[in-house]
Design brief:
single chain, alpha/beta, D-Maltodextrin-Binding Protein, domain 2, nine-stranded mixed β-sheet, three-stranded mixed β-sheet, signal, Phosphate_ABC_transporter
Length: 320
């Protein structure tokens, strides 16, 4: 009898404890649901992102962002194309959260930016582009040497007539960095205000050589670019050994074309917003194929081959 009472009491106690546990679980689930109430969608799927970028990347940027918007229709982009130095300046001064340029921030710029925003800055290489030399199709010149470029770029008695797309642009910086030179202080730099202006200029001045970004002419399926290429041609470059290279993907990923450069996404965004989403998308297979469609060298599809066969990525890493 006593044993039966103990069993009954034990059963009642077990049921009571189980009921309390169930109530507790319901309370915890309800509490957890209340924490997430109002968060309907991830931050990278809606809103507006201001992109500050060097103008020479305009074609590839618009190709990538247009596909991103197909996936996330509630995302809009506000483009601010300006020369590389100003784009970087806007980023480290906290005026923009996202910049697209040919180099990462310096350590001093990183420190300044963190002290100003308290957000950890990140740089992400997403592909390889190049600075190229163009001239009129009527110019008999087919290639030009690194030595000739270096000896004539800033000389008063130059035998070659060069013109940049912009002063202090990504192309301006790339050429100077690769040649290990800088423009003489106070010397006027012959530069126009767009790549299109350079293309027009070299058509009219048959002996002029324009310096623009490869991406301006790389998508040969584009009717506008097809039209440009009936009027101008891209010069091949011969290195110090006399080897001649054109700016194509094999020569970019091996670093044989002398004026290759990486395309960097620089972001200083809090949380996982549109800048982070766009960066992740661009690094995905789909994003890298968009870069390939632009006839540029994807960073991730061939990353291992670039690192093993070229100094390209190592050189950039050393500069960080």
């Amino acid at each position: 009898m006593v044993k039966n009472k103990i069993l009954v009491l034990g059963g009642i106690l077990a049921i009571a404890l189980f009921t309390q546990a169930c109530k507790k679980d319901k309370i915890e689930v309800k509490s957890e649901q209340s924490k997430t109430k109002g968060i309907n969608k991830p931050l990278h799927t809606y809103g507006t992102l201001k992109i500050t970028a060097d103008p020479s990347y305009q074609n590839v940027i618009k190709a990538i962002t247009s596909i991103y918007q197909v996936q996330y229709p509630e995302v809009t982009f506000d483009f601010d194309f300006k020369i590389e130095e100003l784009a970087i300046k806007d980023l480290y001064e906290g005026k923009t959260d996202f910049a697209i340029v040919s180099k990462p921030l310096t350590k001093d710029q990183e420190t300044y930016l963190f002290n100003k925003t308290k957000i950890l800055y990140k740089s992400s290489p997403i592909g390889m582009d190049a600075s190229i030399f163009i001239t009129s199709v009527d110019n008999p010149l087919e290639n030009i040497s690194v030595t000739d470029i270096k000896n004539n770029l800033y000389k008063d008695d130059a035998t070659l007539n060069f013109v940049f797309d912009y002063p202090n642009s990504a192309n301006f910086n790339t050429i100077n960095d690769k040649l290990g030179i800088s423009a003489p202080k106070g010397k006027p730099i012959k530069a126009l205000e767009s790549s299109e202006s350079v293309i027009d200029f070299v058509q009219k001045d048959k002996n002029a050589i324009g310096i623009i970004g490869l991406n301006t002419l790389s998508d040969t399926d584009n009717p506008k670019i097809k039209e440009y290429l009936t009027k101008v041609k891209i010069l091949k470059i011969s290195d110090e050994k006399g080897e001649i290279y054109e700016p194509n993907n094999p020569n970019l990923r091996t670093g044989k074309y002398p004026f290759y450069r990486l395309i960097y996404f620089l972001k200083n965004e809090k949380g996982f917003g549109i800048a982070a989403g766009l960066t992740r998308f661009t690094g995905s297979q789909q994003g890298q194929l968009i870069i390939l469609k632009e006839n540029l060298q994807p960073y991730y599809l061939f990353k291992r081959e670039v690192q093993l066969n070229a100094k390209a990525l190592e050189t950039i890493t050393d500069k960080k």
